[in-house]
Amino acid sequence: MNIYVGNIPRETTESAVREEFEQYGEVASVSLIKDKFTNMLKGFGFVEMPNKEEAENAIKNLDGTMFEGRPLTVNPAKPRTENRDRQKRFNSRY
Fold first, then answer.
1. Cβ neighbours of residue 87 closer than 8 Å, sequence gap 6 or more
2. Phi, psi values for residue 3, rounded to 5°
3. Mean pLDDT across the stretch 52-57?
4. For 53-58, which contacts have Cβ atoms below 8 Å and span 24 or more sequence positions?
5. What is the pLDDT of residues 28-49, one digit of tens each?
6. Closest Cα partner for 14 from 2, 36, 4, 29?
7. CB atoms inside a 10 Å sphere around CB 62
8. Above pLDDT 70, what percent of the chain?
9. How far is 49 from 55, CA to CA, in rounded Å?
10. Which pLDDT score, from 0 to 100, does residue 80 have?
11. Do 4 and 76 contact (CB within 8 A), yes or no?
């Protein structure tokens, strides 16, 4: 199950987020999203947990908890959608 994790401190590491989620079960991967120009964390990321029950337990227990001084937002990740209107908006002349 893919999990969205928001309000992550910019100074944190993938291993710190992994340790937090491993308290609730196996973590397959952690991906923290970085700005492509500054290479700084954007403050959110995704955690993949193969066992759905463990993932749901992690979501229930970690949502709103303090992590390195900030309250986490933890939810099931929504599928990524292609936003074609956005491309049209930036490619149009007016």
1. none
2. -120, 130
3. 97
4. 53/25, 54/24, 54/25, 54/26, 55/1, 55/3, 55/24, 55/25, 56/1, 57/24, 57/25, 58/3, 58/21, 58/23, 58/24, 58/25
5. 999 999 999 999 999 999 999 9
6. 29
7. 19
8. 86
9. 6
10. 78
11. yes
Q: Supply angle C-alpha 55, 61, 65, rounded to 5.
A: 125
Tokens 């970085």, residue located: 34
Q: Which two tokens stand for residue 38?
A: 């500054």
- Which of 15, 6, 24 is CA-nearest to residue 72? 6
This prediction has a pTM of: 0.83
Tokens describing residue 52: 């759905």
Taken in order 55, 31, 45, 84, is the CA torsion positive or negative? Answer: negative
The domains found in the chain, sorted by start residue, are 2-79 (3.30.70.330)
